[in-house]
Specification:
Elements (H helix, E strand, L loop, with lengths): L4 H6 L2 H14 L4 E11 L2 E10 L2 E6 L2 E5 L10 H14 L5 H8 L4 E5 L2 E4 L3 E2 L2 E4 L4 H10 L4 E5 L2 E7 L5 E6 L4 H10 L7 H9 L23 H12 L35 E3 L6 E2 L5 H4 L4 H5 L9 H4 L12 E3 L2 E3 L4
Length: 340
């Protein structure tokens, strides 16, 4: 079966439907073809085949040679980004240009060959195991905090609970796995983690821009912030001791590019606090654990961990022999497609 990028891109919609359904027949039990959908973000647009396995959705990534990485010296910052960088250099006494910093914080342009694969569209939190809500410590949490989304450390146990819409309680405990244990668990069910290069390609969706949506970001907030208008209202609400009424018209999110599915239908690199595991142990992609934002490094550099080719050793590497950072680490499954 030819699952190459070249063939997929040359096919009409009806032929893609036929190929996608033929592939579904050869997939492991539990997989089913869902649909072919069109996704667009920034300069990229793709028609992708989607498959379901239980509650999870997977995107088909045809195989072939692709270009990944970023050339910082071809990038042109706007005035807001330059001003944000000036604030950063002044605060941290840095003697380098924004272009030089960007070149050091992103991986260079390179070519790589991808195998055809299915990849989960949404990553999952890693290091949590379901426990019964009748667990004594869960009951203690419910008695103290009620039906709320809460996370508590009790001794050497870290437990979180949250209510469902029908009033049930979902409780989990942290298992603190290593990278090797996560990878082994995936392999037991026929999956693996994406390689760093695979992750980078599916994050950008083929876009050559700094971010998958384009080259620029709003420099009046961090990715985790609300828009400035709502932020101003929240400050006034706090000053009023909670008496300021919420505007009847509410607030409209004016920048959501990082929260939208990319051109391959993936939700990816949307929260700098969440780093994503890849097949190579000791490195992560898609975030910095919130280091930049917590350090108040400046708005532009606060967005940089969401850049497709972002990689800084001080925030994207870890000791693979130690447990992953539960609560700050996510992962997604890959099913590599190979047919004789």
């Amino acid at each position: 079966m030819d699952l190459s990028r070249e063939k997929w891109q040359a096919m009409c919609l009806s032929d893609r439907q036929v190929l996608a359904r033929q592939l579904a027949i050869q997939l492991p039990t539990g997989f089913a073809f869902h649909s072919i959908e069109r996704y667009q973000l920034g300069e990229e647009e793709h028609h992708v085949a989607l498959y379901q396995q239980g509650d999870a959705t997977f995107t088909l990534i045809p195989g072939g040679e692709v270009s990944i990485g970023f050339d910082a010296y071809l990038w042109q910052p706007n005035i807001d980004e330059l001003e944000s960088w000036q604030d950063t250099t002044a605060a941290y006494d840095l003697d380098m240009s924004l272009t030089e910093h960007l070149a050091a914080a992103t991986l260079p342009i390179r070519q790589t060959v991808l195998p055809p694969l299915l990849i989960e569209t949404i990553a999952s939190a890693i290091g949590w195991e379901a426990i019964d809500s009748s667990d004594p410590q869960v009951q203690d949490i419910l008695q103290e905090y009620g039906l709320r989304h809460v996370e508590v450390v009790q001794g050497n146990r870290r437990i979180r609970s949250r209510p469902t819409a029908n009033g049930e309680v979902i409780a989990e405990r942290a298992t603190n796995p290593t990278h090797a244990e996560v990878a082994a668990q995936y392999r037991r069910f026929g999956f693996r983690l994406p390689t760093a290069d695979e992750w980078e390609y599916v994050c950008g969706g083929g876009a050559s821009t700094l971010f998958r949506w384009g080259d620029h970001v709003p420099c009046d907030r961090y990715p985790t912030d609300v828009n400035p208008e709502e932020a101003a209202w929240r400050r006034q609400w706090a000053l009023s001791a909670g008496e300021l009424e919420y505007p009847p018209q509410g607030f409209t999110a004016d920048w959501i590019a990082h929260q939208q599915p990319n051109a391959l239908g993936l939700s990816i690199a949307s929260d700098p606090y969440q780093s994503e595991l890849v097949a190579e142990s000791g490195i992560t992609r898609g975030g910095d654990g919130g280091c930049t934002i917590c350090g108040g490094a400046g708005f532009f550099v606060g967005w940089l961990p969401l850049a497709t080719a972002y990689f800084e050793a001080h925030s994207c590497t870890y000791d693979p022999s130690k447990s992953i950072s539960v609560g700050y680490t996510i992962a997604r499954r890959v099913l590599e497609l190979s047919f004789n």
